Amino acid sequence: MSGTVRLFRGSTPVEGLQPDDRGFRYGEGVFETMRAHRGAVPWWPAHWQRLARGAARLGLPLPPPGMALAEASALLAGGNAVLRLQLTRGGGGRGYASPGTAEPTWVLSLHSLPPVPAGEGLRLRWCGLRLAAQPALAGIKHCNRLEQVLARAELDTGEPADEGLLLGPEDELVSAIAANVFVLRGGEWLTPPVERCGVAGVCRGWLLEQGLARVQRLSRGDVEAADAVVLTNAVRGILPVVRLGARRWEPHPRMRMLRQALAAAHPAFVDPDLETA
User: Fold this and answer.
1) Rounded to an integer, what is the distance from CA 22 to the centroid of its chain?
2) Would you state the pLDDT for residue 274?
3) pLDDT of the residue at 119
């Protein structure tokens, strides 16, 4: 399945990316990574809204909404997969100045579902890399992800870990490398703000909209003293954390309740263990 791709320039299917594509040259673009279930994307509206917010921030025109959804459905052909939609400004020559007449490029691609984590949860490490504060880009899923690439490379050495936690310039918690973070304190789930850096995840947004969590500035110490920790993203759902350095957590009933709520809203995240518990 991986490598199944459809490429468009405006409303026209094309065969290849332009060499001067500004997404390729400068990261001038946005993307969405979505969980598809039986040929449908249950959170498509939320992903499209975030794509639109990011495109507006960068001054990019959107693909035709109906066409994008129809092409995505045709590509999925009723299957379960990870669907990626990437939008760039298109070709524009050399230099940072954006051309006023460039026709946007957008790409749909299918990828295999990620493996289910082994064991009872994830092992985390603190990353040495700090995320830079840039409010103009905060929250959106833009195509420049070099900070995440460098942070992920840290996991290839040292103590084994499944994911890394990232701090901001003032040592405040921002996120994991490829997920948002929620900590349980005082009986409520808390997640850090993303107005200065980080990505406003779709699964994160769903939890906040449902009143299952709230936003609060958090420190490294807040995480390590939490009653439970979970990571969330739109592809993998809600993932329990069992270890962060020397700190360990046992499965918490509030985490089970959170995952049950997600399973009721998104069919791809129905867990047989939760159904029979």
Assistant:
1) 22
2) 46
3) 75
What's the pLDDT score for residue 66? 96
Tens-place pLDDT, residues 109-148: 999 999 887 778 999 999 999 999 999 999 999 999 999 9
pLDDT-derived band of residue 94, with 50, 70 and 90 as boundaries? confident
Distance CA 48, CA 68 (A): 10
- Flag whether pLDDT at 2 surpasses 60: no
Task: Name the nearest CA neighbour of 165 among 119, 211, 221, 205.
Answer: 221
The residue assigned the tokens 């996991």 is 155
CA distance 144 to 123: 26
Supply 4's token pair: 């199944």
CA dist., res. 262 & res. 238, Å (int): 8
Query: What's the fold here for domain 122-269?
Result: D-amino Acid Aminotransferase; Chain A, domain 2 (3.20.10)
Q: Parse the chain into domains and list their residue ranges.
A: 4-111, 122-269
Confidence (pLDDT) at 275: 42
Q: In the chain, count H helices and then E strands.
A: 8, 14
What CATH architecture applies to the domain 4-111?
Answer: 2-Layer Sandwich (3.30)
What DSSP letter does each residue of 152-206 carry, written as one string? HHHTTSSS--SEEEEE-TTSBEEEESSSEEEEEETTEEEE---SSSSB--HHHHH
Q: In what order do the strands lie in the sheet with 4-9?
A: 12-14, 4-9, 105-111, 81-88, 29-36
